[in-house]
Amino acid sequence: MPYFERAGQPRLYYELDDYTDPWKKAPTILLQHGYARSTKFWRACVPYLARFYRVLRLDLRGFGQSGTDFDLKTGLNLAAYVKDFNDLFDHLGIDAVHYCGESSAGTLGMAFAAECPQRVRTLTVISSPVAMTEEDKKSALAGHPDRVTALQKMGTRGWIESSNAGRRFPADADPRLLAWTLDEMGKSDVNVMIASFIWTSNVDAEPYLPKIKAPVLAIYPQSGVITKEEHIDTLRNKVPDIRIVRIPLQAHSLQIIASATCAETLLHFAARHDGMACHEQ
Q1: How many beta carbons lie within 10 A of that of residue 281, not counting itself?
Q2: Closest CA to 45 of 105, 126, 156
Q3: How far apart are the first and last CA of the chain?
Q4: CB 17 within 8 Å of CB 54
């Protein structure tokens, strides 16, 4: 299994898919998952990208198959995530990536692109809030006063089941998709969930936006529960170089519901900035 081991740091699990021509040095796209998810949530996007790009997927510390052996009070923050990204890129010999993050990983990507411009060729965000709304902070509480209490009382699986309903997927979503998502997200450690929420709920990426030097692609649903028009307006007004694409759906998890659309839009956005033609000669 592709694990990256470091002294004094949690083990990181990653996957690298590469079906590019072996005699070419293909650029790399990083597909980064959001809250309570893992590399598996990008699975359907990989075939559209891996013929022309090396596709790197990382389980964020504490989630998926990455380690939880770190201090939850001090080990989930921007500095820790930036170190994980940079250490992994160095380990794999990657100078810079096309960073694509969904939901909170897009918010993280906004800060990472501003803090480490040399590492980010382009930035793509999918359904990413600039900052978590008060409405989202209070979501899926099932009568509990706050999300921390809800997670403590309901557990990861109980909270995820309540949270997914009407928020991440359309009302007519395939029940098998909902079951699979619940099973995968439900594996997340509840203490990591709580610590991650505390950090994410306090992150505001707006101060980072004017500092982003990379071209930005923003993919959002036409309407949604977690992201609002105010997020898109802020990006449009604050990011120096941005393209905004709206998908005519009311769903948060676009990388699952509209995998082909998201992947192909990302592919051609990245390729245009690399001067590549993403078709067979």
Answers
A1: 3
A2: 126
A3: 35
A4: yes
Asked if 68 and 189 count as a contact pair (C-beta separation under 8 A), the reply is yes
When pLDDT is cut at 50, 70 and 90, the band that residue 63 belongs to is very high
With both helix axes pointing from N to C terminus, report the angle between 104-115 and 78-92 in degrees, rounded to the nearest 10.
Answer: 70
| d(C-alpha 55, C-alpha 57), whole Å | 7
Q: Residue 185's Cα: distance from chain center in Å?
A: 14
- Residue 190 and residue 98 in contact, taking contact as beta carbons nearer than 8 Å: no
Distance, CA of 18 to CA of 114 (rounded, Å): 28
Q: Name the nearest CA neighbour of 120 among 146, 86, 87.
A: 86
User: Which among 100, 132, 99, 113 has a CA at the least distance from the CA of 211?
Assistant: 113
What is the CB neighbour count within 10 angstroms for residue 166? 13
Paired tokens of 108: 């993280």
- How would residue 280 be classed by pLDDT, with cut points 50, 70 and 90? low
DSSP for 179-238, please give it.
HHHHHHHTTS-HHHHHHHHHHHTT-B-GGGGGG--S-EEEEEESS-SSS-HHHHHHHHHH
Contacts of 210 (CB under 8 A, 6+ apart): 238, 239, 240
Q: What are the tokens at 192?
A: 């990591």
Are 104 and 131 in contact by the 8 Å Cβ rule? The answer is: no
SS3 call for 112: helix
Q: What is the pLDDT of residue 8?
A: 92
- Tell me the residue type at 126: I
Q: Tell me how far apart the alpha carbons of residues 128 and 108 are, in angstroms, rounded to a whole number.
A: 9
